[in-house]
Amino acid sequence: MESCKEKKIIEILKNQVKPALGCTEPGAVALAVSRAKKLLGEPVSRVVVSIDKNVLKNGLGVGIPGTKERGNAFAAALAVSCGNSEYGLEVLKDVNQEAIAQAERYLKEEIVKVEYDPEATCLKVTAQVWGEHHKAMVIIYRNHSNIAFEQYDDEVLLDTMNVEASVVASTSGPSLQQQIKEYTIREMILLAKALPGEELAFIQDGIDMNMKIAEAGLSDGVGVGIGKYMMSRSNGTVEGCAKAYTAAASEARMAGWPLSVMSSAGSGNHGLTAIIPINVFGQRMGYDDDLIRRAVAFSHMVTIFVKSYLGALSPICGCGVAAGVGCAAGLTFLRGGTDHQIEASILNMIAGLTGMLCDGAKLGCAYKLAVAVDAAIDASNMALSRVHIPGDNGILSDSPEQSIINMAKVSVQGMGTTDSVIVDIMQEKC
User: Fold this and answer.
1) Which residues pair with 127 in a beta bridge?
2) In angstroms, rounded to a whole number, what is the distance separating the alpha carbons of residues 318 and 315?
3) How many other CB atoms sit within 10 Å of the CB of residue 205?
4) Which domains does the chain have, with CATH numbers?
5) Can you tell me the distance from the alpha carbon of 269 to that of 71, in angstroms, rounded to the nearest whole number?
6) What's this model's pTM, rounded to 2 decimal places?
7) Distance CA 83, CA 157 (A)
8) What is the pLDDT of residues 118-147, one digit of tens each?
């Protein structure tokens, strides 16, 4: 494998596998507001944020880390009181009681407002802030941390809104995510085996980070007890523990537990699904740490590959159809599966879990992640047992790459109105 391919895949992984504090949709809202606040350079007197349907859907009911509050509006208000855009998606990590009290006041006095933009066709957060003398605007576009537009008063400081994702400067998230399409699954397998071990230290950081929040999720008083219930029913099996740890981590994160997670392809829950089951299997079955890191790296690669076609946010649950696919492939890689068996695990997974809907980020996502892990384990186990769902079934193809493209086409083209219907139902409850 050419060294340039190795360097590029490491660049992609480091760009797409990043720490995130709390749900990435309120995180993106907070990041946009915090950046606009910094550009303004004076006390903020008014904030208006507009968001697309997917950011609305995923931020409506999710906990904000370090607080007992939920939702995009509170994230925006908290960004005014303590947000720091230099932290990226950990923008709210300086939260304290004083900042929470200030955020509550901003919302009560209607200083901060969040509005739904039904015309936005992809991930889009527009934050406008005003001070006594100046105003500023920041737009996050296509990717949770991709600041594509900045304006101070009437001066445009940055504008990449009309630049296609594939040609955005190489330092931006969307361009690198799209570049993973240049790789085949078999090339990713070779790279996961061949990459120098020292290049994968950050993969271990993600494992440690996500296992830490999983342990927190198994403690008393987190969420509604989904993770604890699953652990009580696991009978100590590796499969049961993998589900329980993953669910517990998601439950803690969705409840607003003040710990960062390592995300994958722009989603913290994707990162939990892509990492935790593989580490649990690896540790409990006695595989060495280097192999576990390589299997997790491969899981990330596949997850990012799926998301490059599926898009940042979608009507179907990315934890199942993206990270779940990555998890199935990573588990098969970890346990010595052949190239064909790894590809078969991907097809098995797509054949089974494609229809899981995404109805926003919330505590119930913990159960969705458990279902995805359960399916990923079955998909991998079947492949290792030479049970391979053939490519003439439904939307499958003989190649994993085309099967992934077909699955994304169903979501992007075939489910165009699904999100709007889901959002309508959610807003009726507000």
Assistant:
1) 49, 138
2) 9
3) 13
4) 22-167 (3.30.1330), 183-417 (no CATH)
5) 17
6) 0.90
7) 21
8) 999 889 999 999 999 999 999 999 889 899
